[in-house]
Design a protein that fits this description.
Blueprint (H helix, E strand, L loop, with lengths): L2 E5 L3 E2 L5 E8 L9 E7 L6 E7 L4 E3 L7 E6 L4 E6 L8 E7 L2 E2 L3 E5 L2
Parallel strand pairs: 2-11
Antiparallel strand pairs: 1-3, 3-8, 4-5, 4-9, 5-6, 7-8, 9-10, 9-11
Length: about 110
């Protein structure tokens, strides 16, 4: 079964950039048909899809977040990454990576000074 694990800072200052890593095991992120997603959930709200990187390297973003979101990958390490810039307290929430029917456990991010 594919396993995903998010990692990154739990607390970030406003206006700074958040960098998260998703480490994938039991599957290659370049395997045909793989779509690797970032999703977040603010406190008390629903899930929000942020973007994804496909097995081919093609990247798609949520239009609402595209201006300050960047997704990339390191195929040698079988990891993909999220960078979210110009943070505000509204970016606080649990961030998940997901792909091939599996989700990571999520990592809590708080944007606060």
């Amino acid at each position: 079964q594919v396993q995903l694990q998010e990692s990154g800072p739990g607390l970030v200052n406003p206006s700074q950039t958040l960098s998260l890593t998703c480490t994938v095991s039991a599957a290659s992120i370049t395997s045909n048909g793989g779509y690797w997603n970032w999703i977040r959930q603010p406190p008390g709200k629903g899930l929000e899809w942020m973007g994804r990187i496909e097995y081919s390297g093609r990247i798609s973003y949520s239009p609402a977040l595209k201006s300050h979101t960047s997704i990339s990958r390191d195929t040698a390490k079988n990891q993909f990454f999220l960078r979210l810039s110009f943070l505000t307290p509204e970016d606080t929430g649990t961030y998940y990576c997901a792909g091939m029917g599996s989700w990571g456990q999520g990592t809590q991010v708080t944007v606060s000074s």
